[in-house]
Fold each of these.
Amino acid sequence: MPGRKKLALALWLAAGLLIATAGVPAATEAPPIVQKPIAQIKKVTGQASVLRFGERRPAIVGDMLFVNDVIETGSDGGIGITFIDNTVFSAGPSSQIALDEFQFDSNDFRGAMLADMRQGTLAVVSGDIARSTPGAMKIKTPTAILGVRGTTFAVQVYGEH
Amino acid sequence: MMRRTIPALASMVLLAGCPRQALFVVLPNAEGGGVGAITVEDGKTATTLDQPYATAEARAGSTAPTAENQENISVIFRRAIAAQPILPQHIRLYFILGSDELTPESKLAYRAVFDDTKQRPVYEIEVIGFTDTVGDLPYNQALSLRRAAAIRDTLVRDGVDRRAISIVGRGKRDLLVPTADQTPEPRNRRVEITVR
């Protein structure tokens, strides 16, 4: 028991030291989650941006995308992205698509994805997830959920007026 | 039959008065081969589309198949399709028995990988190495990784960005052509390369 107490104390000291050196004020902060990229921006025309943690930044060819990113295009914009499972998304003008969920195991090509298509136009060429895991690729629209079995398709969602 | 059809028709007429909320279209498969399917579920009905240009629309929260001519579809999705990047490409290269040296044919085919990267403004390359079943597991694990590394090194030597390449070795698991153990099989001695 004393040994365990000592260990606990040492851990507290170490934690205190870490907080002190990192200069992070709140000890309540969640441990950092290392996010893996799920897609890369391959093509941009006109105005296109990425909304991440509430912050909007211009979409730049080569930038990586992560779960919970939202891709957006302006009234003259277009964006093309390729996911790590080789699914390809391309959106036309005035589009907003949230990358809500994405898991992919490159060993067996299985996984799951859910994109929330809020408005605009989207063309999709499905990749490994739709091929290896029937029903695991889904696109949510305001009125319906779309399940995908290995194919090329397009969705238009009319914006709210 | 009539019982079912009449209400369905009536609801279609009613829905037709509501504005369209969404449109769903199966497009001809980009990679050739068979067309898959999409299923649209709105909580009440499931509509499956499995033919090129098969279309469904949502009105008043309900989804139903509809007819939209090909020309309109092209106009609606023209900009989205124009934003499509070059699609991922998959290439297989083959090796000499027990070696990380490509066969003469695959040495020529290698150019396709290199040339492909030149077409893309940005690229990622995945190289997965495999072996046939000659030799034990550790030997083949190492050999498969050496094969993948050899391709990476050649690409890097040719000017491809090393950071864009990931390699992995799968040994004698995942045979392309199933064989018994200790069987030389040229088609299993390979790397599978994805450029995207």
Note: Residues 2-22 of chain A form the longest helix (21 residues).
Amino acid sequence: MLLSLAIWVPVVAGVLLLVLGERYARWIALAGSILGFLVTLPLYWNFDVSSSTMQFVEFARWIERFNVNYHLGVDGISMLFVLLNSFITVLVVIASWSQVDSRVAQYYAAFLVLSGMLNGVFEALDAVLFYVFFEGTLIPMFIIIGMWGGPNRVYASVKFFLYTLMGSLLMLVALLYLYGKSGGSFAILDWHRLPLPLGAQLLLFFGFLFAFAVKVPMWPVHTWLPDAHTEAPTAGSVVLAAILLKLGAYGFVRFSLPIMPDASRQLAWLMIALSVIAVVYIGFVALAQTDMKRLIAYSSISHMGLVTLGFFIFNAYGVEGGLVQMISHGFVSAALFLCVGVLYDRMHSRMIADYGGVVNSMPKFAGLMMLFAMANSGLPATSGFVGEFLVILGAMKTGFWLALLAASTMVLGAAYTLWMYKRVMFGPVANPQVAALKDLNGREVAVLGLLALAVLGMGVYPLPFTEVMHASVNELLRHVALPKI
Amino acid sequence: MDARTVLIDHLPALPEVLLLIGACALMIVDLYVRSERRNASFDLAQIVLLLCAASTLFVQWVDGTTRLYIFNGLFVSDVMSNLLKLASYVSVWATLVYSRQYLVDRGLLRGEFLTLLLFSLLGMMVMISANSFLTLYLGLELMSLCLYAMVALDRDSAVSTEAAMKYFVLGALSSGLLLYGMSMIYGATGTLSISEVAQRVSRIAATTDRSLLVFGLVFMVAGIAFKLGAAPFHMWIPDVYQGAPTAVTLAIGAAPKLAAFAMAVRLLVNGLLDLAQDWQQMLALLALLSMAIGNITAIAQSNIKRMLAYSTIAHMGFMLLGLLSGVVGGNLLSAADAYSTALFYVVVYVLMTLGAFGMLLYLSRKGFECENLDDLRGLNRRSPWFAFVMMVLMFSLAGLPPTAGFYAKLAVLSSAVQAGQLWLAVAAVILSLVGAFYYLRIVKLMYFDEPKEAGPVPGHREMRALLSVNGLILLILGVFPQPLMALCYIAINSL
């Protein structure tokens, strides 16, 4: 019941918004998102950390003709993302309170429906259900970027849509192939046990790889992300970075690793190579950006490279580090995009060059953003450190040079983040508009403050996050180590 | 044999008889109707459709899943024929409701339109229930001749007349091809009855030379492809769709596809299943070409009717994926699965076509044709609800969840993959990605662009209601596709 509520409370709230129209739209959205978050909390409290099986399972016949079922469940890998998503949705609703003034109801409805569908992706245990949610998320995001985005929004939204659709369509063929191979079942957990010859595994691996690599996004299919991030409204960028990018990485641990373990091990070199390129090369690309949102977008790609790297070195540090990094990146990238949003609302510019000396007029803001910038560069005692450290530790077990390359993220991340921070916040006030900036209002402090708490809390005491994962990650690794041929 | 048994024996043809009487009555009644809106004729047409639907349901209720042959085996009634007939009534009824205001505004709502529409429906029903080459051909010609005349209904419009001319010439050619193919098969088997053809073909195919059969088959497949609008026999579709008045485009684009599907099933599956290895290869080529030509050419169109015409071609290619996956290596086990996916596809496709052209009719008004992409600009500002309905239609045509179009695609792709046509399925998804672009462009125009003209869209109450229901059905089928899928499965199993 809880898992269904996590999906349908936001969706129903969204539909309600569309029906009721503009009046009280903001309040209905807020109520819907908070309710949506509250119903996910018991998932954490009642979670059995010692078990690696699916919990809170729901099962109902859905499309009998194709043996498709409404099958939901979460394990240690997926549960936290449901919470993260519902939490971020609340922040997004609050953060866009006064940013949007045209077609408010449609705006919030899109976000709430999106939130429900994202929960569905993380909870689905049936491949068709997963696919419906996975692809369904494209529609609201397309509308969000296209309707409330920046000047180049149409190009960015269409590019986003077609790019991700291309990947997922190939996955659809892979799903149908598995359906046939498994004798007519779409149950993901059945597929985990399905023996497959290496040739089929390799073929399937590439089918899934396109879908997930585009979503992560991995180099070289990342080019949609900077455009989408830059043109999306602030809240759109937040959801995109914090949650949507996690779908791809989640897909790797839910589908690629357990269903095609032999192919995964065989092709690990490729995945590691692509990940390292993302970490190092995209790190340098980020350094060269002049637009703050673009810079954070590239930083996201680079950080997600570390996640995929962690998954494909096949040890507990790597996988757990990758998962922790996903959650941490959810908080940090959301916070950074919100910070840029705060500046953009006041100045209507994202260009680093237009700023300088902001700290003089916005001290509170400068303080909070400092924290997030540090977290983005992986400073100890922030959430960013935990995941990166674990992945580097895992990489060290594979080889020194790999670990060295992975660790370059610490240096590069610090370089591009702090350099941007310095150029925006410090230095002389060159632009008269900057001098007139107003510091954060109560709502902005609340949103950024909540995220700051999360970032610090996770950095100082990560156990509540990691203990949930242990059992599931160990089970996953045990499973991947066994050949399925 | 007394009159009572004659009646009972011929019960399965009751809907056809009623429709024939109704259409003739309509012709007479309409002579006395003076009003511009033709309320009496219009209501009579709707009542006839309702009676037909009731009688078809009655026939279905009486006969259940048994297969009945009447008129010496010329006519067959099974679950599939009843399902397709019901879908045709719905489709023709929706055509009537959607096109009423449009035709009134242009002075085209004359008795001829209604009568021709009903007679074309009669032709479709005969095709759907045909169990003989002769019946099938008669039904096909009845349907086609009515449609040719309807395209030319706006006789002062040069474009319409040109379209009608093209449609007629090419249609006659394709009928000729079909007839030629039939005569070949007749020559080889010595019978016109489809069920007897099936028996004799299986004997011939096992023993003697099959070249004559295959020769006839080629022409038959060409004729079927022409009526479906599958490439490379698609040339007429764009011109006719664009040239005909939108109401007539709707009449051509929706229900006749059901009849064409029935024709394909009757001829290929009921009659020539033993040649499946041969026609499946031909259909595979047709499917691939249709998906490629339809989707790629549609991108370049600025006229929505023309764009939807190319999209039709692509969709027919997709539907063929289901038809060509039935027999795998001589094994018939998954045949019913595969054909039922094609049936599901075609029914969902007709629902989507109705909605899409219905929307164009809704947005047109006196002195203004909604037929260019730009006419949809900013619809969300003018009418958020109908922009939403159109968005559902477009995403359904593109095959995205959660809409019915997604399950239609999923079903036929699943058939193709199960039949080992993995590369055809991969080609299909890549081409449907190409297709997603032009559907997406319409969503973009409606939502992201500023409207060309301000103010809400006028429109009749019944039309608005039906259009809303049409969109919602696609959404509901997108969440609960099981009932229709199960129905299609039962229908195909009754073959």
Note: Chain B touches chain A through 36 residues (CB under 8 Å).
Amino acid sequence: MTNHWRDIKNADLILINGANPAEAHPVGFQWFMRAKLDRGAKIIHADPRFTRTSAVADMYLRIRTGTDVAYFGGLINHVLQNNLFQDVYVRNYTNASFIVKQAFAFNDGLFSGYDPAKRAYDITSWSYQLGSDGFAKRDMTLQDPQSVFQLMKAHYSRYTPDVVSSITGIPVNEFNKVADLVGQMGKPDKVMTIVYAVGLTHHTTGGQLIRSGALLQLLLGNMGRPGGGMNAERGHANIQGNTDHAISWEILPGYLKIPAPGQKNLDDYVAQSAPKKSDPNSWNFFGTNYRNFMVSTLKAWYGDAATKTNEFAFDYVPKPGQNSSWMSIFDQALKGKMEGLILSGMTAASIGPDANQVQQALSNLKWLVVMDPLPTTSSEFWRAPGVDSGQVKTEVFMLPTTHWIEKDGSFVNSGRWSQWKDQVIPPQGNARHDHWVLSDLFARVKDLYKQQGGKFPDPIMHLTFDYQDPLKPLLDEIAKEINGKDLSTGKQMTSFANLKSDGTTTTGDWIYTGSYLDTGNLMKRRSGIQDPATNDPTGMGFYPNWAWSWPLNRRVLYNRASADLDGAPWDPTRPGISWNGTKWVGDVPDYPATMNPKDPNAYLPFIMNGEGVGRLFSNGMIDGPFPEHYEPVESPVQNPLHPANSASPVAFLYDQASGRPNRFGTVTDFPYIATSYRLTEHEHYVTQHVPHLVQLQPEPFVEIPWELAQTKGIKTGDKVRVSSKRGKVEVLAMVTKRLGSMTCAGQKVFQIGIPIHWGYVGISADADPGHGRYWLANALTPFVGDANSRTPEFKAFLVNLEKM
Amino acid sequence: MPTVTRRDFLKAGVAGAGALAVAGLGFDVAFAQSTKVKQTLRIAGAKELHSICPYCAVGCSLVAYTRQNTDGSVQLLQIEGDPDSPVNEGRLCPKGATAMQLAVSPRRVADPQYRAAGATGWKTVSWDFALGKIAQNMKASRDATFVATDGNGNTVNRTEGIAFAGGAAFSSEEGYFATKLMRSLGLVHLEQQARV
């Protein structure tokens, strides 16, 4: 989230797409309701399924899954065509005025630079024209036909209400009502928030779905403001913290890029990774400090072995040759190139797309380690129902690890609040902490290298273990390490702004610098609503002394943009930060604390971007500088905008690229759209072990629209088979009017809803005669993902439906 | 109906009367206060600790109560929403409200389990056996799949044949530690729950 849970109460209008917070984040949803009940805010919910969120929304729009680019596109077009954007903000705080190269083009669904053989773009033309000073050319009148503003207006002019309706299935009159409400949010005294979850990310266009919302928010001047922003609701307790700390193939801690092959030293790395300053008034804070952050992390990891002479051990960091994300792991296993897999609190057999193919991939491994407090489908995959155990050659280890409540440490919520927890009870039985298992394994591997030698042992030998007991590091010690210290004084760093590239400072993750000072661990702070007058001095709900929020305890990201050019809040009743004549006050400023906004050299507001402003046009995405609607890889209709390029032209097709048979179905065999989702009473798969929750939601089911059920003679409680090109589920039918038919591209289409929570492990499976053999929802989902992030397309695929 | 806050409710001293608590709509605080039911609270004399809900990422704060038994073991008595939190203000959803059944469960795996290639059942093993064997596997797979220099002559120092995934439910500090160790083993296949 750019903002945080409690901040949603500050909004005038709440757009919810690809999310069902009333059921999936019910306690967070109280802040939506506070906005509605206390300020009269309106809630608009666009979702394939009418849910409890829809029930309290002011408008519910039944949208075809995977078409939100068109929905947001129509809203953007409405705002641009009717001059409803926040004019001062758009001119000064976005790159609307930047001039793009003449060679940039968009025709028939393809941007300039497309290579069909590689299924990839050469993005050279997706950049700015540069002036003689080396900075981007700008036209503050926004009239230049090559200005981002004019190009954007032309791009979005195709998203008329009729086109939007044809793609999304939302009736034109309903769409127009939403457009009217959204169009009012560009006034400085109004603010809208957009809230989304995996219903937006789980598509081949996932990144651009979210970017579409961000563009709308920039046009309306809502980024950086309390009550505004782009707010992702994350689904697991610490998905945020562990993304920040880079358990992710493409990054190092704090969203530094993983080095790429060919980068021989830090100069190459920084030149190819850091944002570049493209306007004279841009601070380019991230780009300027990139080297400081990287060197300080290398010092935290490799200590005295990281020296100026060896480029601070830059060669110790592995450089991936290709995408190495979730599906890539199993693709490599299918090709016999992956030998071992360690799963810590994740179950591969249930959570990835195309579960049958993943089952095969797991069987191809030499060894599998599962670290979990409870049995999972991965620890049991070798004896799943229907599997001949004797034929599975994978060696499997099940290591019992501790639950969250048996250890301390922090969880970071969706709003970036890092909240420390106590160790409440000791480990049960012989369970061990995950990090103690890893430190023990690492020590054993290190000993083997000492005894036997082997490939490039240097990073293993020199990794720092500055803990009282290296086999049992305390999470408190690690938290201090993450914050970082000044090696010359031994003091904890107070800000990442002080990190250096000369090897005299350390940080484990620069965005957490400032969380653990010499005075103590700020994540433990507990000044909450027991005393609102003292603890929430601005009344905006920041609660600055409750836990700690990255970066530097800032509660709303990009908050310089919450104030106008002179530093006054756009809406004085909802200030983010404001200039009091000598300094910025309010939230922790995303700006130099004493920089006078009226100074002609004052920095532009978006300090992390090279441009210094928000990017309506960006070459940061591989599938286009503007979002474009593409159909899901499996879709019953052709893209009305450009049938010749219907689906994403750059989404990576794993099976095709690896020479395996295609596993995508067509509408002829699989006529219905399916989308997967989650229930209030379960979380992913672990709650299959919680008796009360199993009692509340005991059996898997699919939601079937009433009209479709009628034609098939299906009643609630009947057993049905839902199948895709990849597999099937056999579960109970729930016939409902929460789903219904829609007309898209002139065709009548139906959507089916599939909750994901069941599999062949857990209390329900134990009670089932078939032991949940056909209960894995992901047996149906396609092995393809977002062009940029490779997040699987769990939310839109084709199935058939039969009564059993 | 009078507005009943959670604090009033607890003050009424009927925390032990579970059936009444569930049927809260028909509950009369004034009556409960007047009758002064004498009961020992389940959490009387307990130690109060703070945690965070392990499920979704709203980040609801929890209050957990424990008591040390005479044999020295620590018993978890109760988990409830923390009324001081600006995030949840004491409220919990069905998952958070049943967090105790996740924390303490007879379904937990007690000891390390090992299943050899082609075996049809688990074998209970010691930690030393399991960790020793895994470490040997890691060393062998690392050495077998390590690429020091790629086809273009670039130094890449990567282990291609081992993947690590995890972390949505362990502490941030454990996550950072996992990244630090796995990158130092040369792993490029690192993943967690953000994508799936």
Note: The first strand of chain A starts at residue 13 and ends at 17.
Amino acid sequence: MNTLLQVQQLSVSFGQREVVHAIDFDIGKGEKVALVGESGSGKTISALSLLGLARGAQVKGQCLFDGQDLLRMNEPHLQGIRGSQIAMIFQEPMTALNPLFTIGEQIAELLQWKEGASRESAWQRAVELLNDTGIPEPRRRAHSYPHQLSGGQRQRAMIAMALACKPQLLLADEPTTALDVSVRGQILDLLDHLQQRHGMSVLLITHDLNMVRRFAHRVVVMDKGYVVEHGNVQDVLARPQHPYTQQLVDSIAKRHVPDRKSDAPLLIDAQKIQVTYPVPIAGWRGWFRKGQFVAVQCATFQIKKAHTLGVMGESGSGKSTLALAVLGLLQFEGQLQIKEKSWMHQTQTDLPLRRAVQVVFQDPFSSLSPRMTVEQLVGEGLRLHFPDLSLSQRQDSVLQALSEVGLDETQFPGLLARYPHEFSGGQRQRLAIARALVVSPEILVLDEPTSALDVTIQRQVIDLLQQLQFSKGLSYLLITHDVDVIRAMSHDVCVMKDGQVVESGDVDAVLGNPQQAYTRLLVSASSHNLA
Amino acid sequence: MHMANVSLSPSRRAWKRFRAHRLGFVSLVLFLILFVASLGSELISNDKPLIAKYNGQIYWPIIKNFPETHFGGDFETPTDYLDPFIRAQLAKEGNWAVYPINPYHHSTLNYFAKAPNPSPPTMDNWLGTDDRGRDVLARILYGFRVSVLFAFALTITGTLVGVATGAIQGFFVGKTDLAMQRFIEIWSAMPELYLLIIFSAVFDPSVTLLLVLLSLFGWMGLSDYVRAEFLRNRQLDYVRAARALGLSNWAIIWRHVLPNSMTPVVTFMPFRMSAAILALTSLDFLGLGVPPGTPSLGELLAQGKNNIDAWWISLSTFAVLVFTLLLLTFMGDALRDALDPRKVDVQP
């Protein structure tokens, strides 16, 4: 196969710090290569530096594209290559598209600029391109602004724009990460289809091995700025050689849950929970009254001691709202009995219940106050719920909780006096779990506990949560969009769509034999069915 | 992550970045030196000797007033130490006196001056005198102190009120926010200068009155920023986690949201200081400010305008103002850089 792009000894550094260390890889004509690695592995910056888009970076090495070295090209020449021969699509289409222009204008402008097309013919081509990417009613949609489109449609528009000048190489930087699970597959299929039709090469940058399996011919694995392994997708994923690749391939958590006990006491009994938000109504009527948006409708579920209920759904399905309702942080209608008590929505009367129900949020970067030390963060619950503890007793309890989540003084000298910014994402999530555990709760609400973490870290956090459930007999309300996490941790599962529970029951029954089309769609996007 | 940064709190790291900003740090040091020096103006610029020995007895004229009769004068009036006769008495064999560097108080009228008022800079009056014969250097020194102290007071009251209102608006949102926001809109539409003119006609002018009047209007700009920070921070997960722990609203505001919302408050402080100095100067210039006789930069500028030939009055006041405001602006720039979350840490 002819080589289209050959990267040799590419190094990228910021000031004194080298982030990419002399990597080599190549892409053949019409080949699909995946560049895999976790956040901070240098995969995105490598791709950006190919096009001279890595701001403030010193780039060394050689990148031969069709025999020309991209790194030694002057700016006007490089501009000619960008977009017309090498195009790029980004993770977040909302920020990659200009919000002030319609998508048709943005595509047409590119054609006028790059190919000197006339206004009419450029617009015509733009509509065709949108049609190719499967946007319904392309003629009407071309007049839409980015915010008027759904996430999937925006990404399709981005792809249409990238393909406008028939590039030979497409750099796709995490093209599906910002999208819902059910849309991810469609976008990937679209890329696959367009790649075959145009015979272009694709460099797919991703952290998701499911996508690699499904899409790529060859894979290049990066870790900490080094290429640790490369080869055919089947070979590498079936017989990973490098320890990091092995860890990556092995990152799907194994199912490990306590046995069901029919006599376990009931901890949460929720009957017909309904949460509504007021929304403004357009027009003069909105001056006098508000409309209602039903975020959660008639959710009924029960959680027993040491059991896990998984709530599965996409963004906007109301699953996080449900979690906030269970935590008593939102007003809701319906019956919610936690240990046979209800939320009174008063700080003092709710205290005993607050101790029993704790929460771990998705993003460990926003869930820890950056101006508090580890001791203050984790000890806060103790100060409130056990005000009689002496300072040293409190410190002991904090250290105890930290060691339960795998953080101790030997790893981190002066652990208690440290601030969150000194910890990685996974360690921060452990801190957040320790903060919840320190008041010895019986129920943990886990709101997407792994979604913001790298794949190998996700596995570790799930292992930790499983182990804590065994040792402490915790009950979990697990909110996630990730079927693999549900499979690994849940006894029961509720599938939510647009605020309604569409399907619920035993995890094996629901995931093994889904009754609803929506559940089937979610399940088919999981790795189990791809491996 | 660098080992050197282990267990440095975010504010300590910001201080480190501020230290690394040379211009800003030098400005801070210079400003502090000037401020501390102006606090001791009485020791630097005064018409009384710090200490004197007369006929075998030690006197502290700077602390206690002595009638002229103590030093061989004829009247029971307080001693005028600029009087050549008293000077001669104190210079006699066995007597001595230590005078401040600049032997004039801001209110000293030198009856024994050699040149007519206003006098250009001479060896006696380094920056000349104003149209009443008072020493310009002394008036600038005392005027600087009044300006800076006033600016401190105005900045602190404005910041406290602004943070409190912004916090309440941003945290409790909804109707509270709506009501207070409308109040701010109405309040900010009041003609501030017009009110000042009315009040200065009705009441006796005083620094306190000025402080109260300017504070009534000075907090609104800051409360908007604090409100915005609170609106952003209140919906972050760490606040939700604190709610889930059962913390009261007050504890959440005090321990969680407020410390994370202080960036604009701290960043704006030097700029608010310089705005306050400028406000006081302008009001004094217009004659709406501090009571007559109080040393003030604005009053000096007005004198400079009235005596356009006496270039030393306006020029030296102008230089001091520019220098002070520049220092504050440089400090503000450095603070803004130091608190910018996008800036990476400085290597030690």
Note: The first helix of chain A runs from residue 43 to 50.
